[in-house]
Amino acid sequence: MLSANLSAIFYLISGVLFILALRGLSSPETSRQGNFFGILGMIIAITVTFLSIGNFSIGFVVVLIFLLIGGLIGAFIAYKIPMTAMPELVAGFHSLVGLAAVFVAIAAFLNPEAFNLGSPGNIKLGSLIEMSIGAAVGAITFSGSIIAFLKLQGIMSGSPITFKGQHPLNALILISIIVLTYLLCSTQSSNLFWILLTVSFLIGFLLIIPIGGADMPVVISMLNSYSGWAAAGIGFTLENTALIITGALVGSSGAILSYIMCKGMNRSFFNVILGGFGATEQSSSSQNKEQKPVKSGNADDAAFLMKNASSVIIVPGYGMAVAQAQHALREMVDTLKKNDINVSYAIHPVAGRMPGHMNVLLAEANVPYDEVFELEEINNDFANADVAFVIGANDVTNPVAKTDPQSPIYGMPVLDVEKCKSVLFVKRSLSPGYAGIDNDLFYKENTLMLFADAKKMTEDITKNL
Amino acid sequence: MEIDPFIFRLSIFILSIFIGYYVVWSVTPSLHTPLMSVTNAISSVIIVGAIIAGLAGNPDSVFNISSTFGFLAISLAAINIFGGFLVTQRMLAMYKKKKKEK
After folding, report:
1. Cα separations (Å) of A388 from A41, A263, A264, A368, A420?
2. A340 at the B interface (CB within 8 A)?
3. Whether the Cβ atoms of residue A160 and residue A106 lie closer than 8 Å to each other
4. Cα separations (Å) of A357 from A58, A213, A344?
5. Which of A35, A205, A265, A436 can bridge A281 by disulfide, Cβ–Cβ 3.0-4.6 Å?
6. What pLDDT, on the 0 to 100 scale, is given for residue B48?
7. Catalytic residue selected from A215, A381, A395, A404
8. Nearest 5 degrees, angle CA B24-CA B28-CA B29?
9. Beta strands per DSSP E along A257-336
10. How near does any CA of chain A get to the CA of B36, in Å?
11. How close are the terminal C-alpha atoms of chain B, in Å?
């Protein structure tokens, strides 16, 4: 059996390894090593826990069995999941962390002796507060992530669900969570503990339903952050350094990602959380939709334009992920490169359904990461490029964000696609994007619309090159 | 007067938030998706609590209510640990540099 001090040291080591795991992600070269540090940290934490309890009876076997079942399921999912389904997978994983936190809190509440927290009905006050916070945040993470998962998976409609009195109701529930926590701590009543959990599950559900599909990058990052705070809450209860460090790391990581995503849309965090975006503006844009002339073309025209270009910038968006066009796109780019045409990729921070979504898809299609650029890095290059190839993106290229203060997306950083000599727009129809507004780019002189499925169009262009 | 050990844990927590802040800002935006999947995996270190709960039952009744919740939490966290690290590895293996022109 490991002494308490020695195991605390080991937990600290695994906490440090987790920090190194995140540190490794500062560049693709060091990232694989970082992941290894993370795995090592996890192995140390689990081994130390077994050794410090020192109970290798029948219970140990059962624990191993459950560990193995979960591990096999996890490994199976990890190998089978297509890269386009990454947002759903991450949302699903968040819900599991949340539920695990809830279960650990329940176990600790029912059997506090096992965790040295006192006896049932007489749990140390500090531990009870920490436990309630961990359980409540865990429950919110769970139900919120389930909704995010259903929306991303398309099982539930991606459009915001709003109803009258939504915000007062949510505020009321949040206040009731605080009151319940207070009452729980003063009475130690197990009924209150169950009510607290139920109410937390409910608020997680209500918080996410009004948020629309394209705001999912913010939601996923936010739930990432919550899962961290839940872990930290449980870490305090268990007096476990590894858990406290990890919870803080994950919590701040998710918070930073949400901030980056909000900035990418020029919207405040509260604006996103309160939800309903994109539902109201749709009506106004359909009114003033006079028939404007649009130039549309086919794969032949597009191939001709690109063949005569010397530099092409590709702007991928969520539509590319939906059409699974990343491989076809890379083949097209390969053909272009054979013709000595310079090709680079421009990624908007909120392209796709989660942070970095486009980068992963391009990496999957074997696009070298040093050809892929972020908005700030590449935005000046559009003026010197011959062709911008917009595939599955819309709002992030809309020049209205720079010119029209009335527009709901005014102030949002956009890719300066219109500065290119010509713009090719692969899209299925002229329908507005997520923000519900028309894109002026469609009607510009130098824009050629290619109405087709992204994958099919890219393949056709390749044939014509 | 002695300092409550809680204060030390709180110190660790606050300092870790700052470490997290600086470390995550240095993560390159193209790796934000792997960042999310790896944070998922490491936050499942909550399995430590699940194992304690699972092993707390006495040998006569391995499956009391508390330890059953522990066992379930072990499986959930294990899905995340294995799934999270493996899928991160799978993604990171795809990030390649441009091949040198021959």
Report:
1. 45, 24, 21, 19, 6
2. no
3. no
4. 44, 14, 17
5. A436
6. 93
7. A395
8. 95
9. 311-316
10. 7
11. 72
